[in-house]
Amino acid sequence: MSTFKWYKHCIVFSVLFLFSCGKALPSFEGIDLQAWKDDKQACHGARSSMIEAMDTQSKKLLALSQQEVIALLGKPDENELYKRNQKFFYYFIQPSAACTNSNTQNPKKLVIRFNAMGLAKEVSIE
Hints:
The chain is an alpha+beta fold. The chain has a single domain (26-125), classed as 2-Layer Sandwich (Beta-lactamase Inhibitory Protein, Chain:B, domain 1). Helices cover 31% and strands 17% of the residues. It contains four helices and four strands. The chain has helices at residues 2-19, 33-38, 51-57, 66-73, and strands spanning 78-81, 87-92, 109-114, 120-125. It has a four-stranded antiparallel beta sheet with strand order 1-2-3-4, with no helix packed on it. Strand 3 and strand 4 (120-125) form a beta hairpin.
């Protein structure tokens, strides 16, 4: 009975230890992450005011997992699965075609390419 309790405590301690070892998410200067998340498809124009700050700090997203990017920026406006298990996340910075106030043919967007391991490999604004 006491051996069982000892194993039980070891398992609980191990699980807590593993989950406490995560790295901290990066912080962004001049970017209101909640406003970014709330501005789906960039329809409200909040993201367009953050384009310069995102452009200069976008490299902070490199090597983050897909879940970490979603925790920071919210769900992507679009995503694409590419060959060899690569994935792309797209976050519109200018209003997309889905917005009623869209007036650009090719709106700017933040593009994040993930490798097969699910880590951000490339970040660009197109």
